[in-house]
């Protein structure tokens, strides 16, 4: 059942994205009155003092800045000489800031050495995300316990207990059980189940697919009963980079004893100058409960290396899109009406997050959706990648993408007073970083008070619109935390567009396995304040000044 909501919502977001003439981002630049975090930054970064902690060292002017190789013409000249602040303040009082990541050719204020000493990144050598982190003051580490930011390989599905080692102050780039959508067999089964529940029309963006060896009889029956001559593409369950993929005109050619996906080949792809291509769309999931999904406007177009022809289906160079090419996608438009909004449930992933993680702060994930357009410009979702290639061949897309990912997920300065984190640093370490700049664990508490639990149960059981509209009448501390977290996150989105939740969220709630309180809360908040966001922020700002958001 995992990730069903994600796939459908991401698909409809993709349709809206490439059908629009342009993306109009919500103006979230207004900042209501709040504690002057900018002044706090100056104190902590340039010439810091603190009555609680004593003076801090000023950063060394010789501190090296590692840069990601880039092409200067790719970024606007006017941005090159602007010095960005080291921290991004919250829109609300008494909420810690997040670390501000910048493009490779941009300058940023260096954090104080004692702050930088807390920032460790565990990543692959020569990785773009690693170097972006080094640029703003992170140090690399090979110690799997001491990292603040993890940007390496995913945990295998059979090793999910490793998530138990992720501390509440660590940011991990993968969500537990995301293989449910990343493995082709599990993706297929999820979509087939949802099609049975909600009707096949809602899920007609996925080609007819069978799983071998379990579905060999259904495959045989489908082939014998059809009057059309089908071409099949055979794929191993969980391989990547086109390994093991082949095409055949006879279903019998597929090895029925091998674990493989047998998928009907889309015979009429949209062509560019005679070449077949597909689209790589990047989708970021920042939270499971509530579900928050963002889509990136820049992606890749992957072309086959030979011109398309159905005369020889065994020519993989004409049928497999194994070359990646940058694209701005201006030429491709799909009417939104061609596909209704779809969601693809998150039950298993939500359960895994609650079972294996100590804090919802700890995980996020960037997915790569592969989408094919047919001759009628209908989109077909081919597969979803949990570990998309983000190499240096396409820095024009991948560098700003990863910069926006790192800002969007909101990486905070660890609070050394946390016993678990302090034990990882060593017994002699003492914090000299002002507490208002570091993570406040009260904002990420997952245990509900009895009053909050009662409210959750009431609104997930009383779904009439009249009752649902009252969910905002008396905001609990837990409600305030979730709302400011969501609004602050959206304010850091860069080029990303949030596609869930949104003004039309109500259409998609029926695709969830069961109602989720936080999804209902955000739906009602957006419905009430979408056209007057400043009024909504003012309400939350007033509550934050009263410290409502950090109450138990």
From TrEMBL:
Please list the residue ranges that the record marks as compositionally biased, kind Polar residues: 46-63
Signal peptide range: 1-20
**Which domain of life does the UniProt lineage start with?**
Eukaryota
Q: Which GO terms describe its biological process?
A: microtubule cytoskeleton organization
Q: Which Gene Ontology cellular-component terms appear in the entry?
A: ciliary basal body
The record ties this protein, via Pfam families, to: TTL (PF03133)
Region named Disordered: 46-67
What keywords appear on the UniProt entry? ATP-binding, Ligase, Nucleotide-binding, Signal
Q: Which GO terms describe its molecular function?
A: ATP binding; tubulin binding; tubulin-glutamic acid ligase activity
Name the UniProt record assigns to this protein: Tubulin polyglutamylase TTLL4-like
Source organism (scientific name)? Lingula anatina (Brachiopod)
Species classification: Eukaryota, Metazoa, Spiralia, Lophotrochozoa, Brachiopoda
């Amino acid at each position: 059942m995992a990730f069903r909501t994600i796939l459908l919502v991401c698909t409809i977001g993709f349709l809206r994205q490439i059908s629009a003439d342009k993306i109009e981002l919500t103006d979230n630049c207004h900042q209501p009155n709040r504690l002057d975090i900018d002044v706090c930054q100056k104190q902590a970064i340039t010439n810091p003092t603190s009555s609680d902690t004593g003076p801090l060292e000023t950063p060394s002017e010789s501190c090296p800045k590692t840069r990601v190789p880039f092409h200067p013409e790719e970024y606007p000249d006017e941005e090159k000489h602007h010095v960005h602040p080291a921290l991004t303040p919250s829109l609300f009082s008494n909420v810690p800031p997040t670390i501000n990541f910048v493009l490779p050719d941009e300058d940023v204020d260096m954090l104080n050495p004692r702050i930088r000493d807390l920032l460790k990144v565990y990543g692959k050598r020569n990785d773009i995300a690693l170097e972006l982190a080094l640029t703003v003051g992170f140090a690399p580490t090979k110690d799997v316990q001491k990292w603040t930011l993890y940007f390496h390989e995913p945990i295998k599905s059979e090793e999910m207990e490793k998530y138990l080692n992720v501390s509440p102050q660590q940011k991990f780039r993968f969500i537990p059980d995301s293989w449910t959508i990343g493995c082709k067999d599990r993706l297929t089964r999820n979509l087939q189940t949802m099609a049975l529940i909600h009707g096949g029309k809602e899920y007609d963006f996925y080609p007819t697919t069978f799983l071998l060896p379990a579905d060999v009889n259904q495959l045989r029956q489908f082939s014998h009963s059809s009057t059309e001559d089908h071409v099949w593409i055979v794929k191993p369950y969980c391989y990547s980079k086109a390994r093991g993929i082949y095409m055949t005109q006879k279903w019998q050619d597929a090895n029925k004893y091998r674990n493989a996906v047998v998928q009907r080949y889309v015979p009429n792809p949209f062509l560019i100058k005679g070449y077949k291509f597909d689209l790589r769309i990047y989708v970021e999931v920042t939270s499971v409960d509530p579900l928050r999904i963002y889509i990136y406007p820049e992606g890749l177009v992957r072309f086959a290396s030979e011109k398309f022809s159905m005369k020889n289906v065994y020519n993989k160079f004409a049928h497999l899109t194994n070359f990646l090419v940058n694209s701005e996608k201006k030429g491709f438009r799909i009417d939104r009406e061609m596909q209704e909004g779809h969601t693809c449930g998150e039950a298993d992933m939500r359960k895994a997050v609650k079972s294996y993680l100590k804090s919802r702060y700890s995980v996020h994930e960037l997915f790569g959706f592969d989408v094919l357009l047919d001759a009628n410009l209908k989109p077909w979702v081919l597969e979803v990648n949990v570990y998309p290639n983000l190499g240096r061949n396409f820095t024009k897309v991948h560098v700003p993408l990863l910069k926006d990912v790192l800002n969007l997920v909101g990486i905070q300065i660890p609070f050394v007073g946390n016993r678990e984190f302090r034990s990882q640093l060593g017994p002699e370490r003492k914090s000299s970083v002002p507490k208002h700049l570091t993570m406040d664990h009260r904002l990420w508490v997952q245990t509900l008070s009895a009053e909050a639990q009662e409210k959750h149960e009431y609104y997930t059981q009383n779904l009439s619109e009249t009752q649902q509209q009252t969910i905002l009448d008396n905001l609990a501390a837990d409600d305030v935390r979730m709302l400011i977290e969501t609004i602050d996150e959206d304010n850091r989105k860069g080029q990303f567009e949030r596609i869930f939740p949104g003004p039309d969220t109500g259409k998609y709630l029926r695709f969830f396995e069961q109602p989720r309180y936080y999804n209902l809360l955000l739906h009602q908040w957006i419905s009430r304040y979408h056209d007057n966001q400043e009024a909504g922020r003012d309400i939350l700002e007033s509550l934050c000044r009263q410290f409502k958001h950090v109450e138990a």
